[in-house]
Design goal:
The protein is an alpha/beta fold. About 40% of the residues lie in helices and about 10% in strands. It contains 15 helices and eleven strands. It binds ligand PBG and zinc ion.
Amino acid sequence: MRFAETSLQSRRFLNAIPATLRRNFAGIDLPLRRHPFDTWQNVLKKCTFSPAFRRIAKVFTRIPCYNCGMNTYPDLRLSRLRKTEGIRAMFDLEVPSPAKWCWPTFVVPGANIREEISSMPGQFRYSPDTLLKGVEAVVNQGIGSVLLFGQTDHPKDNGGSQAWNDAGAVQQAVRLLKREFPQLTIMTDVCLCAYTDHGHCAPLRPDGSLDHDAACLCLAKTALSHAAAGADVVAPSAMMDGQIAAIRSALTENAFQNTLLMAYSTKFASACYGPFRDAEGSAPRARPGMPSDRKSYQASYANPRNALMESILDEAEGADILMVKPALFYLDMIRAVREKTLLPVAAYNVSGEYAMLIAMAERGWGDLGDLVRESTMSIVRAGSDLIISYWASQYQRFFGKNC
Ligand code: PBG
Ligand code: ZN
């Protein structure tokens, strides 16, 4: 009797469902309500809700899922899938294995140097010799690649000519690392800002304007000298028009056709690079006709179509890997680039994003490990293939078995 009544109630419900959906249930005596209707009425009667509220509550608690015909609450409780650590682990996304991470780090000329960067606790400037030790610790955690940033102790000039000095710190470091860790993928940042006397990423014309075309030549020379030293991947970050085409053709013409080209394709003029510029001494200075920011060449965070176009063009110019940078403030752009290309997409979790989590944890406003894990997963969800992050050097601490 009770069952028949339930079944009747279910049918009445089914009749309220559009015919197309109803067809899915035709012929099946679905026990749509395992909780008989009158049970709910009784529950509601016992409560002190007004009749109007009861009417609404009745509707809401009896809406069957239009997909499977199953009722939602109280039958369906999503928290069941989160109940225990074991159940959560079954369905949670995995943190990418260390092979999918890249560790950016800093090389300075000299020997026996390993100085902590004050705005990036836990990150260091290394001379080529000590870099080996730093990289060894990272390789031992399984990290697949490193991205090297260089500096010079020679005088800086307008064109940043020390960037393509074959005896420069980066070039030296690449040769050493290549010999010591043949299985490690070695990437180099290709830019001029650490080598120009004004800190901009390109030579300036006498009127102060930025010379994109001249920069392309300088960047191509720099990329070639990195490739000649043995870099597996060159990564131009200057955001100059045509830089990918210029570097790709220089590589091809000089028999480096197997060197990968990772474009910092959508790189924003961000306020999150402060600690990095500290580490590199590469903050842009104002000149007559040129302000002390990079807004005229790096992408504008308020113009997402223009920023997306940068990645599309870099693909057309011959990039092998595209990149969105920074990562956390630009998760939508990671997703947008992901949906526009079949190339791999890298996300650069930059210095300011690193420092801000540390600053928060230092003030006792959050647990560093939890912050690192949560923010990392947002980059994964956004759709990146490669995570370029300073956290890579602490992979085991934050993502190892017992954390
Ligand atoms: C140089 C360069 C910058 C970063 C990578 N390459 C700084 C800038 O554009 O001023 C930023 C990296 C970071 O903040 O971690 N063009
Ligand atoms: Zn630069």
